[in-house]
Design goal:
Elements (H helix, E strand, L loop, with lengths): L1 E5 L4 H12 L3 E6 L8 E3 L5 H9 L10 E4 L11 H21 L4 E7 L13 E2 L11 H16 L7 E7 L2 E2 L24 E2 H13 L4 E7 L10 H8 L4 E2 L13 H7 L7 H4 L4
Parallel strand pairs: 1-2, 1-4, 2-3, 4-5, 5-7, 6-11, 7-10, 8-9
Length: 282
Amino acid sequence: MRIAVTGSSGLLGRATVDRLRAEGHEVLGLDITGTGGPGFTRVDFGDYGQTLDSLLGVTARHEGLDAIVHLAAIPVNGLVPDAATFHNNLTVSFNVMFGALRAGIRTIVYASSITAMGFPFTVAPASLPVDETALGAYNTYGLGKVLEEAMAGQLVNWHEGTSITALRYTNVVAPDGYATFARAGDPSYRRDLIGSYVDARDGALAVSLALAHAKPGFEVYNIAAPDSGLSIPTAQVAADWFPDVAITKPLAEFESLMSTDKAQRELGFRAEHLWRDNYTAG
């Protein structure tokens, strides 16, 4: 396929571009920063004109796209003022999704987030493990993600045959970024992430599978490693963090509290890069 990846210069964006190209797709990276040249075009997605123009065609790059993978965003709160995070991310996602539909692109895969399901979980979830039914925002980044999902759920009905897939990523870890797992025995480690993580390469795998399994309609999938990022048994962690929350299924010894059952069942997704295999004590 001919696929554009927004946010192609970021951690997840780079891994996604590499994977899709390795699979034989023609991939165009689109981002506000990045190295110019074949396979990349600089675009300010806050500008709808630039966004639509880049999706319709770019001389010497493409004359039409089969799908778009939307990963561009201010990635966390704190990099700019809170309201700026919200305004930028929601505007960018509207421009990309609406522009894609105007350009006749009917397959969209985009990055949602654990922040749309209760992060940092100071308010206890309804049940554990936390699945895709959870919905709650407690910062402006998360609020943007909740509203993006609502927007996608409406836009998908505007043109017959449209497929929009939201991938709710947890903390994305770089292949060389496992040093922090030295704290895996600390009960407070990754508390705001309910212990979850995912390798960037597995994040890219999720994009590939979502594209391959795209079907008309809107779907949301949690994307995380199947194991907890802690060396403490999950049942103990759950009891310590959320003593009054119901456990809906038997928990394996180090099972993640961010459920990926739906992604495993419907996409065939199972993370291949686990911290226990990648972390080496210094």
